[in-house]
Amino acid sequence: MTSPLDLLLWAVLPYVTIAVLVGGTLWRFRYDRFGLSTRSSQLHESRLLRTASPLFHFGLLFVAAGHVFGLLVPKSLTSFLGVSEEMYHLGALVMGALAGCATVAGLAILMWRRWRTPAVRGATTRNDRLTYVLLGVVLLAGMSTTVLTNGVMGEYDYRETISPWFRGILLLQPDPALMESVPLTYKAHILGAMALFCLWPFSRLVHAFTAPVQYLLRPYVVYRSRGEGLGTRELGARERRRERQGL
Amino acid sequence: MRVMAQLAMVMNLDKCIGCHTCSVTCKQTWTNREGVEYVWFNNVETRPGQGYPRQYEDQRRWRGGWELSRRGRLRLRGGSRLRRLGSLFANPELPALTDYYEPWTYDYRTLTTAPLGDDSPVARPVSAVTGAPTTIHSGPNWDDSLGGGPENGALDPVVAKLRDELGHQVRFEFEQTFMFYLPRICEHCLNPSCVASCPSGAMYKRVEDGIVLVDQDRCRGWRMCVSGCPYKKVYFNHRTGKAEKCTFCYPRMEVGQPTVCAETCVGRLRYIGVLLYDVDRVTEAASVQDEKGLYPAQLDLFLDPEDPEVVAAAERSGVPHEWIQAARRSPVRDLICTYRLALPLHPEYRTMPMVWYIPPLSPVVDALAKTGFDGEDAGNLFGAIEALRIPVEYLAELFTAGDPEPVRASMRRLAAMRSFMRSVNLGEVPDQNLLSGVGLTEDQVRAMYRLLAVAKYDERYVIPTAGVGQAHELEAVATKCSLDTEGGPGMGGGGGSRGGPVELVVWNAQSRPEGLFPRRERS
Ligand code: HEM
Ligand code: SF4
Ligand code: SF4
């Protein structure tokens, strides 16, 4: 029997997170396009950023790819393809640890830089601080699952529990029972990640959703007519209300 | 042939006195905000000198503009699209704030709040970015009028190029030195590398008038345009995280007014007008193998608005009749195409810039005068233009990718005009050979003189307004303040709860003065 807490954490919260993430992102794309920016601080400080930012971002892209692989690809498929349990485990451990270390190191330098460079510090908002803390927590918890739970302390096959649970969420068949036996480090990592995803649309992290891959396909020089887009910005809810009230 | 219209500017460098009125009025209009304290859409630099940002012309370092690949294809100097995407996380070619300068203000408060003492209080410099006390190492115009100074001269990338690649030593001894002012705005290029570098597609060239703009709602702060522009005329607003640049004062242009920098120019040396060009041939012209061929190739793009074929093609491409007429009267076309006086700035960047310059004759005249010759005598002047290698070669590095001939030709025409008009003014019989020698007729010289020396307002600026079809809406734009909404801070609107007047000079984005914004609603 699943406890109400488990039900809340592993069957309700995931959907709340998805709703906030999707809804919040749509809201920002519609009403706060001007606010969507990396808010680059490279103008203020370049030396540290040039090592730390690629380290962090490329590390993170690997980590993200690893997550997709680990969570979405069912165990049956990899074993069908002839990947043994040991090979998979070793691969995940080594690659995950490497990418994770790069990401954590990158983030550490970025945070140090933010703290120590007066101009960058001045450009840091409260929202940024919260984002950094949460990002740090999720990353460290994630690293501890790989390095501690899954490395030093032995082996934990998350592909028997967490992965099916995650796919169940996506397939609208949540099974919170799968999460009951999961080690604490994993639980902390997942809960932290859900909090991060809730913050995502409202923080600077949205820039990740605007990654400009279309650049590869478009012609170099963009021409636009004066009329296009002129005054076509959609009004925010508040502005529309004002308009209706004739204010 | 696909015809497009382009608003272009020409500046007559001989008349620039380096007063910076253009920079200041531009700044007060467009960049007197937080985040863009260090930004000058219009700046005036002293040449020889480092420019702003310092040494921006050194493209081996900044990698702005375009280059030809080994197979002769045009590509961004900053690398392929994949390389650009790969360097999104940290842009290796981005100038730092210190390459511009760290903006500062002064701690004026001490002047009035310091306790009584023996020493008079001093307002110390405070960084406008961090608010901490700072030491000023450089400023927006640090080497102003120090063109000949040995510390600055040798740091000029153009001087360095002349020295390293051509073995020409620019002299900085007092007697041989020369300097002039170079006012710069965005070039609103025909082949803009800033637009091509923007991964989001937020930057665009306007079809109607060729003005290059940043869509603030689409910019995501990837800061690739900043390094992509070889003239360093896109700036990063460090508050909003968005790129900003010279807009060619498009709200003014649309109602037929010149840009703020042109309107307020004390020397009355700026000209604005329309040029018609063939868009289909831009890439081809920008891909000419020999850099010295880029200036003629660009000239070749411009179309003759008197040619019936061109007019028909223009109408087919949707260029309004008014604009074709404006192109016929364009002072810019006269200076660029007819008299061949104006030259592009750094055509070797292959962006096909559209703010052109009439090279200054004054370094030559000054040099003559210093040696005791009559600086306005045609014989002396022509001789000097030939003999004074360095200023001419320096100018050629700026305007024609190093080909001295177009610079000399332009200067000879200027010299011929000076001598001819002096004879006229002194009641002498002008030497007609003078004119035929430079390929001008007397009528042309008089018209040139009128345009350059008399420089009437409505001859300097021939600006067609934006489409007649929209005249009705534009009238509202022109005659009404955009802040004049109900409840807005403008003078119009009825009722509403507005506070008293707002002191904009000391306002920063952190504070929220009563009346400047609509009331925050608390729900
Ligand atoms: C592939 C998509 C992404 C791209 C293209 C991208 C690009 C950028 C850029 C250009 C900056 C500004 C760096 C600067 O000049 O200051 C930045 C900063 C940042 N990005 Fe990303 N990013 C991506 C994905 C992500 C993701 C997925 C995360 C986190 C989950 C992330 C977290 C951050 C953080 C925390 C910063 C601030 C760094 C600092 O200045 O301290 N990014 N990113
Ligand atoms: S000069 Fe202006 S149009 Fe040309 S590349 Fe630079 S910013 Fe773009
Ligand atoms: S206002 Fe005119 S004269 Fe003065 S610096 Fe600017 S361009 Fe030169």
TrEMBL record, chain A:
Which keywords does UniProt give here? Cell membrane, Electron transport, Heme, Iron, Membrane, Metal-binding, Nitrate assimilation, Oxidoreductase, Transmembrane, Transmembrane helix, Transport
Establish whether keyword Secreted is in the entry.
no
Q: By its UniProt entry, which InterPro entries does this protein fall under?
A: Heme-iron_electron_transfer, NarG-like_domain, NarG-like_sf, Nitrate_red_gam
Cofactor or coenzyme needed: Mo-bis(molybdopterin guanine dinucleotide); heme b
Q: Where in the cell is it found?
A: Cell membrane
- Domain NarG-like: where? 7-226
> One GO term of the cellular component aspect?
nitrate reductase complex
Indicate which residues the UniProt annotation says bind heme b.
H57, H67, H189, H207
Question: Is this entry keyworded Iron?
Answer: yes
Any idea which GO molecular function terms this record carries? electron transfer activity; heme binding; metal ion binding; nitrate reductase activity
Task: For this entry, list what GO says about its biological process.
Answer: anaerobic electron transport chain; nitrate assimilation
Q: Report the protein's function.
A: Does not seem to have nitrate reductase activity.
Which family does the record assign?
Answer: In the N-terminal section; belongs to the nitrate reductase alpha subunit family.
Q: Which PANTHER family match?
A: NITRATE REDUCTASE PRIVATE CHAPERONE, REDOX ENZYME MATURATION PROTEIN REMP FAMILY, RESPIRATORY NITRATE REDUCTASE 1 GAMMA CHAIN
Name this polypeptide is given? Nitrate reductase-like protein NarX
- Source species of the chain: Streptoalloteichus hindustanus
Q: What is the lineage of its organism?
A: Bacteria, Bacillati, Actinomycetota, Actinomycetes, Pseudonocardiales
TrEMBL record, chain B:
Q: Could you list this entry's UniProt keywords, alphabetically sorted.
A: 4Fe-4S, Electron transport, Iron, Iron-sulfur, Metal-binding, Repeat, Transport
An example of a GO molecular function for this protein is: 4 iron, 4 sulfur cluster binding
SUPFAM superfamilies, alphabetically?
A: 4Fe-4S ferredoxins
Residues of the 4Fe-4S ferredoxin-type domain? 7-36, 177-209, 210-239
Its localization reads: Cell envelope
Recorded GO CC terms: cell envelope; membrane; nitrate reductase complex
Cofactor field: [3Fe-4S] cluster; [4Fe-4S] cluster
The UniProt record lists the keyword Lyase: no
Q: Which Pfam families match?
A: Fer4_11 (PF13247), Nitr_red_bet_C (PF14711)
Q: Name one GO biological process term.
A: nitrate metabolic process
Matches recorded under PANTHER family: NITRATE REDUCTASE BETA SUBUNIT, RESPIRATORY NITRATE REDUCTASE 1 BETA CHAIN
Q: What is this protein called?
A: Respiratory nitrate reductase beta subunit
Q: Which organism is it from?
A: Streptoalloteichus hindustanus
Q: Mind giving the lineage of the organism this protein is from? A: Bacteria, Bacillati, Actinomycetota, Actinomycetes, Pseudonocardiales
